[in-house]
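Handout, section B. The chain below has 72 residues.
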Amino acid sequence: MFSDVDIDKLHESGIRGARFNMVAESGGTRNLSLIERVTSMVMDSGCSLTIHTKPDGLIQNASWLASMKHLQ
């Protein structure tokens, strides 16, 4: 897992986003707590968040996705 120092180094290097793949057949994760932890770590640095999923993944995770606004 990344530390806050690692996140700061990425930000200083120009990284401005976090991308998650939730498509299992292409090696993605459905570990929602992992996504939440990383999102919480990068949100203060102004990073954008991109989640790759299939339409059924949007439906299956709709309430979780809606709850992510509490991290703002």
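Note. The chain has a mean pLDDT of 87. Compare this with the example in section A.
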